[in-house]
């Protein structure tokens, strides 16, 4: 799979099922689906898009290879939260997560964002390495609705 053939597109309802399926697959593999997951996965337009966020989908040959979303934040300490990143098992290790994250960060910057937050699990070592490579730094003190989240990170775009 050549990353030049990967197209990153913003929200399209036809990819709603893939958004849910890819996220359900990875979350179920490592953890358990929680009520907070279902809000975004069952109602992505209402929960993410209609509130000023965006969903990004990586496509190759009409097949969804990965997804992620930016949730508009009500928190004064950051503008968006990077959420629900998932890459198809057959496409992992090919840089698709990085393409998705960079597209999301660029989109947020174009809308005036200065800080992007995310939550993850230290169990997901590859994901943590990706976030660090993108410039995210660990922070403390932000409560999470997820049992699995044991690390919070912030990307300060202006630093």
Task: Note down, in words, how this protein is organized.
There is one protein chain. This protein has 159 residues and is an alpha+beta fold. It has a domain of 110 residues: 3-Layer(aba) Sandwich (Aminopeptidase). The chain has a seven-stranded mixed sheet, with helices on both faces. A hairpin with a 2-residue loop joins strand 2 and strand 3. The radius of gyration is 14 Å and the shape is globular. InterPro entries: Acyl_CoA_acyltransferase (IPR016181), GNAT_dom (IPR000182), NAT_camello-type (IPR050769). Keywords: Transferase. Pfam families: Acetyltransf_1. This is GNAT family N-acetyltransferase.
Cα-to-Cα separation, first versus last residue: 34 Å
From the spread of the alpha carbons, the general shape counts as: globular
Radius of gyration: 14 Å
CATH class of the domain at 3-112: Alpha Beta
SS strand fraction = 25-35%
CATH superfamily of the domain at 3-112: Gcn5-related N-acetyltransferase (GNAT)
Structural class: alpha+beta
Low-confidence stretches: none
Sequence of strands across the biggest β-sheet = 1-2-3-4-5-7-6
Number of helices: 5
Q: Label the CATH architecture of the domain at 3-112.
A: 3-Layer(aba) Sandwich
Give the beta-strand count: 7
Helix and strand run: EHHHEEEHEHEE
Protein name: GNAT family N-acetyltransferase
Keywords: Transferase
Brief overview:
The chain has 159 residues and is of the alpha+beta class. It is built from 5 helices and 7 strands; from the N terminus they run βαααβββαβαββ. Strand 2 (54-60) and strand 3 (63-72) form a beta hairpin.
